[in-house]
Amino acid sequence: MNDRLVIREFVQNLLSERGDRAALSDSEQLAERLQSTDVLLVVVFLQEEYGIDFAETGFDLNQVESIDSIMALIERRRAA
Amino acid sequence: MTSTFNLAQPFYENSVTNSQGLALFVGEMRFSYGELANLARRISGWLGLKSGKVPGKVGILASRTLEAYAGVLGTVWSGAAYVPINPRTPEDRLIRILRMMELDALIADQAGLDLLSDRVLECGPSRILFGAGAKPSQSALGFQGISFESLAELADEGPDQPVTVAEDALAYIIFTSGTTGTPKGIMIETGSLAQFRGVVQDRCGFRPTDRVSQVAELTFDNSVLDLFVTWAGGAGLYVVPASQLMAPAKFIRDHELTIWFSVPSTACFMERMKMLKPGAFPSLRCSIFAGEALPIASAQAWQIAAPNSVVENFYGPTEVTVVCTAQRLEDPPNVTRNRGSLAIGKPFRGIQAGIVDANLNFLPQGEEGELVVSGRQVARGYYHDPELTAARFPTLQGRRWYRTGDLAYQDSSAAFHHLGRIDNQVKILGNRVELEEVEAHLRDIIGTDLVAAVAWPLADGRATGISAFHCAAGITLADVREGMKKLVPAYMIPLQVHHLDALPLGPSGKIDRKALVRLLDENRV
């Protein structure tokens, strides 16, 4: 399945659990809408689904600041 | 040996004996003790000489920039008290604080300058100092009656040494959530800070070879330990960049930090991100956690990741100068019954702690009640609120105590255990929140008195957010969040908002928050 669709759906589900059903664009800053515990869920999801080891790469909020950034992170992991 | 209680005095002495030693690492830049002392002196000169009088209070509207740390040092060097204000403070709250404080000057970084609208400038001090790379807006520069000066253009003048300061002078004023909606300012004296610093220094032995984390915002008094114990020990302070704060494992390793200090949530997040691998942090020798309950599992996971480190659980309200009790992680650990968290341990040297009932009678060991604390570390009181000060700082048995509002008991080894709150204050990721404050703002936004807020959801027994309830029609989550964003810091904005036909009430007729939490736990909203 298209990775971008998977990520978008995951984030939208997190938001709608909070009752936030407003539209989400791929370049939008997620920090405005997600709490730190939600960011943690995104990180754990990326670890489990895409094998991204944040212990190795280090964690920086900029890596997950938007859906576009997350896609870039996944592509870098694939290229490595 | 001087008899001054100036907070910058130990820093200054280290700048003389070890001027090349690293004092501060921030934003990829390194500053030695000598360089930082020079900057502090010039800031002190700007504060004192130009105005012709010793300033009383200086606002630090900066975070994780040179302006923030040099601003604090320069302020205390000149004998004034510093008042940290987070640059992410919403405008209304910022205006309330400025009106209350009547500051003599403001030191700001770019993030702070960006907050200076006309409405804010009207209420703030007339002298503002900003950082070398920063730029005030054209509109701010043109505002009548305000003078701006850049750190880069400060004259090379100022007192050669930190000004002599008495032990009952004000050191800092830190704001915390107030039940009425107006934040309350906690006043801490230099003598209290000196007492606290001495105890921590004796326990942890900060020295010039140490590299210490700086994680807490200046508005969170954990930062007082970071700055003043580090600089008293001649050690280096390493500021973790904001974008890495959630899980800074790489920062710890890259800089081979030797001393770590954060809230337990950071350890919990790092554990979930699989960063606490065995031996991940060999350089750490002392790891301190404070600000929230420390789950045993997290403490032990951290110990495995930092095998050369002692792991300390410190406890204390802001009103007792950062922390006042300590419990080291041992094997077996001292566990708080029914909580799975580490005990808060024994009082610091110079602190007396006791458990009282609702009538302020002391209870015997083993019984549960409110924890009260006495000693030099106890605050002067709340800024411009003598009634609240009298209520929270009673005199019992001829001594002045602080009522922590924490439910606790003492075990047979004389260690204390924290069980929760006796009131409606909660901690959200280490930040203090009065639920009544959230409710006061919700009432204004929603336009009805029938509102309630609880801390929920919980993760490992710690609250991670606020959930709100109301009985009004046609209110959306977005309405509430937009409204709250203008009034309170991010951690106080409800994650969820639920409509109920009626709010559950307890036997006394007050809102039954436990019932609301049950509704959420059982998914019945």
Break the fold down into its secondary structure elements and pairings:
The complex is a heterodimer of chains A (80) and B (525).
Chain A: H1 3-17, H2 36-50, H3 54-57, H4 67-79
Chain B: H1 9-17, E1 22-26, E2 29-32, H2 33-48, E3 57-61, H3 66-77, E4 81-84, H4 91-101, E5 105-108, H5 110-113, H6 118-123, E6 127-130, H7 138-141, E7 147-150, E8 170-176, E9 184-189, H8 190-204, E10 211-214, H9 222-232, E11 236-239, H10 249-254, E12 259-262, H11 264-272, E13 286-289, H12 296-305, E14 310-315, E15 325-328, E16 335-336, E17 341-342, E18 346-347, E19 351-356, E20 369-375, E21 381-382, H13 386-392, E22 395-396, E23 399-410, E24 416-421, E25 425-428, E26 431-434, H14 435-446, E27 451-455, E28 458-459, E29 462-463, E30 466-470, H15 477-485, E31 496-499, H16 513-521
Parallel strand pairs in B: 1-11, 3-4, 3-5, 5-6, 6-7, 10-11, 12-13, 13-14, 30-31
Antiparallel strand pairs in B: 1-2, 8-9, 9-21, 14-15, 15-18, 16-17, 19-20, 20-23, 22-23, 23-24, 25-26, 27-30, 28-29
Helix pairs in contact in B: 1-2, 2-3, 8-9, 11-12, 14-15
Features:
heterodimer; A: mainly alpha; Non-ribosomal Peptide Synthetase Peptidyl Carrier Protein, Chain A; 4 helices; B: 525 residues; alpha/beta; Rossmann fold; GMP Synthetase, Chain A, domain 3; 3 domains; five-stranded parallel β-sheet; five-stranded mixed β-sheet; 31 strands
